[in-house]
Amino acid sequence: MERCQGSVLADFILMLSEWVVKIPVVLIMGVTTTVDAPRRLLPSNALQQLRPCKFMLGSPTERMNAIVEAVLLRPCSGFTVGYKVALFLRDYFTRHDGTVTSFIKAMKIACMKHFSMEPLSFLGCGIFDEHYQSFSRDVGESLPYAMLKYAFDFPSCQREQFAERTVDTLTNGLAELKKLWDCWSSTVLCIYEVAKHSKVQLLDIVCEAHDPSLCNLRVTNQYLPTTSTDYCPHNEGFPLLRKVGVISRAVHKVRDLPAVSLSHLLNILEGHTQEMAEVHQKVRELQLALRSEDDGNNIKPAAIDLRKRSIYRSPLNVEKGSKKLNEKASILMEDMIRDYLKPIESAPFHEIICFKHVDVLQSVLIGDPRKMIQVDLVKSKNYLQCSCCRSGGILLASMHDTSLMYSLAREHGDLINLHDWYQSFKAVVSVSSTKNKRKMPKSPSKKKKLAADLAPDTSEATLQARFCRAVTELQITGLLRMPSKRRPDFVQRVAFGI
Q1: Rounded to two decimals, what is the model's pTM?
Q2: Residue-wise pLDDT tens digits, 151-181
Q3: For residue 129, what pLDDT is reported?
Q4: Burial call 206-244: b when 16+ CB within 10 Å, e when fewer
Q5: Dmax (CA) of the chain
Q6: How many other CB atoms sit within 10 Å of the CB of residue 151?
Q7: What are 80's strand-pairing partners?
Q8: How many Å apart are CA 110 and CA 98, to the nearest integer?
């Protein structure tokens, strides 16, 4: 903004102010010096037309964490991702592209695929609604029996032994799913408040929290360390703890927090644990203990016996009390992780809100062009939807030459004899053309006779030309390797699997 001429910018602002009633105008101006730069640059009549708002662009890491928290930890849309999808999104962001825009694109595609592939995904939107009870009652009245049966056929429901497969069981399962998800997301946010001091990404914590293989270790207390010696990379006494991740390191970090940081952490935990009454009560108790300790350290010297003053205010005693509170806070975090950090994929009916098709997302983002070309050639009838090719798997001359040639090539192995391949192509085209000529009625009209003479030519030269063009197109698409000097009568197939 400092590089602009004040009079020109003022005239521009006054001109836009005349249209602001009909068209809302937002001016984004960068300031390189101080906040009061517009006041020094613009006259008063131009400043009166402005309503300044200060904003700062966050770093890509901050934007990334904000997106992950809004989409994956705030289930307002009833959508989340599974463990493998979360790993793929993290690897795609860090190794493949590394831009926030690409991550947003991947999240949009995953959300779109989930709601288009899962018939019961509309239930996820109502789970987290304020009027869930009325929503569940409406679902119970309108959900068809086929959809109810489909819900209980989920793989997650096969692990559970439901006494009754009714709408009430489904609504109760969705309520438990919501409760599990709320506690899981709150626990992840609490862990992130500790781990972000070590510059840990929120997506790394989400990936580790989704890992179903670590759930059993958390239950058996083999996942979380109890002392700092557990973190030694060469510690042979704790083989499982040598593979600990960011969550265990975050819990260990609580033991080393100073009193000010611990107080700030407890204030944040108080807001995140509203849905967990027992944990919330323990957080309040730790806050009271920390405040009472601070008040004890701030007592006036006159109120303390001179003999005991040095003992009371000894740094060793102060440090001992603070370490005791840090230890209690660390134990509280361990209890939260063990009791509430259960992966969403372990709950029944999680398929309604959880997208787990990592292969679908990978094919869309990274793609497999050669495979898609093969699928398009084999299923060309499904794409064209023409009336002349609707005959199951029978090869017809009405098919595109390249599609017909590739279908014939699938009947051969690694090497394809050009002569046999041409004869097969010629047989299909010639037989179909002969049938069409037999069905064509005789007409005395000269115009119709002329149209019949202009029918597709099936002469030897024409067939050879069509054959060569189709082979060349298959070579260009990367499905064939042309004949070599050693074997001039054979072509080699390059792509298989379709």
Answers
A1: 0.64
A2: 888 988 887 777 788 888 888 888 888 888 8
A3: 67
A4: bbbbbbeebbebbeeeebbbeeeebeeeeeeebeebeeb
A5: 131
A6: 23
A7: 354
A8: 18
27: tokens are: 């001016």
Mean pLDDT of 118-146: 76
Q: Is 205 exposed, middle or buried (0-12, 13-18, 19+ CB in 10 A)?
A: buried
Report the distance separating Cα 450 and Cα 436, nearest Å.
16
Query: What's the mean per-residue pLDDT of the chain?
Result: 77
Supply the DSSP string of 412-459, one letter for each residue.
S-SEEEHHHHHHHHHHHHHHHHHHHHHHSPP---HHHHHHHHTSPP--
How many Å apart are CA 442 and CA 471, to the nearest integer? Answer: 37
Which run of H or E residues covers position 80?
Answer: strand 80-81
Q: Residue 355: helix, strand or coil by DSSP?
A: strand
- Locate 421 and state its tokens: 């391949």
Tell me how far apart the alpha carbons of residues 256 and 98 are, in angstroms, rounded to a whole number: 33
Residue whose token pair is 């440090």:
319
CB 425 within 8 A of CB 467: yes
CB 491 within 8 A of CB 485: no
Amino acid making up residue 483: P
Specify the pLDDT at position 113: 92
Question: Which tokens sit at 135?
Answer: 């929503």
Contact 474, 406 (CB under 8 A): yes
pLDDT of 227 reads 42
Question: Contact at 8 Å (CB) between 66 and 339?
Answer: no
* pLDDT at 220 (0 to 100): 52
Q: Which of 294-298, 370-374, 396-400, 401-405 has the lowest mean pLDDT?
A: 294-298
Amino acid occupying residue 361: L
Which residue, among 346, 69, 357, 356, has the nearest Cα to 203 in the 3D structure?
Answer: 69
pLDDT score of 32 = 67
Place of tokens 């399962």: 173
